[in-house]
Design goal:
alpha+beta, Alpha-Beta Plaits, 162 residues, 9-stranded antiparallel β-sheet
Amino acid sequence: MTTDVITVSRETGIRDAARLMFRNRVSGLPVTVVRVPERTLLAMDVGPLDDAALERFAVAVEEQGIPPAGDVMFKDGVMMVPVVPGATAAAPLRVVTMPAMRAAAVELSGSSLDAIDRRIDDVYRWIEENGYRPVGPALRVLLDFEPGGYRLEVLVPVEATL
């Protein structure tokens, strides 16, 4: 049995790579360790991550007229989106600073958020098997969602064990 290998180059944009993954039913990419820069974020407590939480957050951001500067993120019941430094917000939104970090990063896709979350255990195993240890909870970055599927980047803060 032979399988065609699907590849992308360093010049391939994230959106093009994601489309290629979706069309070919590729659900994850290799884990890499990256440096994530400090970011100013607009945040709101939403509880569990689901479609209703996404809708509540989107409405709150739109009502305040604050232009997002990146993809929606989720961690520990809080939904966030990057904004320009110096942005201000009123309740239920607040402005927070996410410190720079080193993180194990992987892109995952699946038919449900629960299905993707079950695969995050594999990321934690990779972390421990490759000389790192987690130093915080996973941050989920929502890259795309449409009927029948979600695409997330999962970032787990890490530090080297050596």
